[in-house]
Amino acid sequence: xxxxxxxxxxxxxxxxxxxxxxxxxxxxxxxxxxxxxxxxxxxxxxxxxxxxxxxxxxxxxxxxxxxxxxxxxxxxxxxxxxxxxxxxxxxxxxxxxxxxxxxxxxxxxxxxxxxxxxxxxxxxxxxxxxxxxxxxxxxxxxxxxxxxxxxxxxxxxxxxxxxxxxxxxxxxxxxxxxxxxxxxxxxxxxxxxxxxxxxxxxxxxxxxxxxxxxxxxxxxxxxxxxxxxxxxxxxxxxxxxxxxxxxxxxxxxxxxxxxxxxxxxxx
Length: 267
Ligand SMILES: NC(=O)c1ccc[n+]([C@@H]2O[C@H](COP(=O)([O-])OP(=O)(O)OC[C@H]3O[C@@H](n4cnc5c(N)ncnc54)[C@H](OP(=O)(O)O)[C@@H]3O)[C@@H](O)[C@H]2O)c1
Description:
It contains nine helices and ten strands. The protein is of the alpha/beta class. The longest helix is centred in the middle third of the chain and has 27 residues, at 129-155. The structure holds NADP nicotinamide-adenine-dinucleotide phosphate.
C-alpha cells in the first residue's frame, strides 16, 4: 500500500520548469508488456506505444538482444525496461510479474506477441508431431500461462487490454475453404496454434465480460520481418498498427473479436 502511494507521487526526474509533469507520475503512466519485442512487430509495437507515452516492458528471451533493443528505444526517448521473458520457461513469467508488481502494482496492456513457425511448408499428413507440439507451446500454451499469471495485475488497471497476436492463417473459415487465398499456407502446427490462440481470445473475453479488461486477437498483416520474409507486403510501421489500436481501445471499443487494422476477420 505504502509502495503504491509512494509510486503515485510526482517523481523528482519528472519536474520540469513548469512544475511537476503530472502525466509522468508513476500512477498515471500506462504500462505495457510485450513478449518477443527485441525485434520485428513486437519491437515496432513497443516503439509506437512508447511514443504514445506508455512505459514499456520489453520482453526478450535473449538478454543481449533485449538490452540492445532497450538501448535503441531509450535513445529515442522511450521509457522502457527489459523484461526477461522466455516463452519456454514459466519461471520467467513469475519473475516478470514480480518486476512489474514491484515497480507499478498493476499492468495496463499485455501484448502476447512472441511467435514462431516450426512446420512451414510441411503437409499436415507428414508433419512430425514434435513440431506441432513446439508450435502450440510457443504460440499458444505460453500465452495462456503468462496471461493467467498477469491477470491479477491487469485487473487492477482502469482499462486492461490483452492483445493476442494471431494470424489470418489461424482462421478456420479460410483453412476450411479449399479456394481461399491461403493456398498451401496451411501448416498444422502454426495455423492450428493461432486458431487455438483465437479460441483463448473468445473464451477469455467471455470469462472477463464483467470486468474492465478487453481481450482481442489481431492479425498484423503480412509484414517484412524475419518471420514474414523480405517479400512481405507491409512495412513494420503498418504491421504494428493493429496491435497499437487494440492496446489503446477506448472503453466502448470491442472485446472478443479478431481484427486486422479496424476490420473484423472471420474466425
Ligand atoms: N510477420 C508476419 O507477416 C506475421 C503475420 C501474421 C502474424 N504474425 C505474428 O506476429 C508475431 C511477431 O512476429 P514477427 O513477424 O515480428 O516475427 P519475428 O521478427 O521473427 O519476431 C518474433 C519474436 O518472437 C520471439 N520468440 C520466438 N520464440 C520465442 C520463445 N520461445 N520465447 C521468447 N520469445 C520468442 C523472438 O525472439 P528471438 O529473437 O529470440 O527469436 C522475436 O522476438 C508472431 O506471433 C507472428 O506469428 C506475423
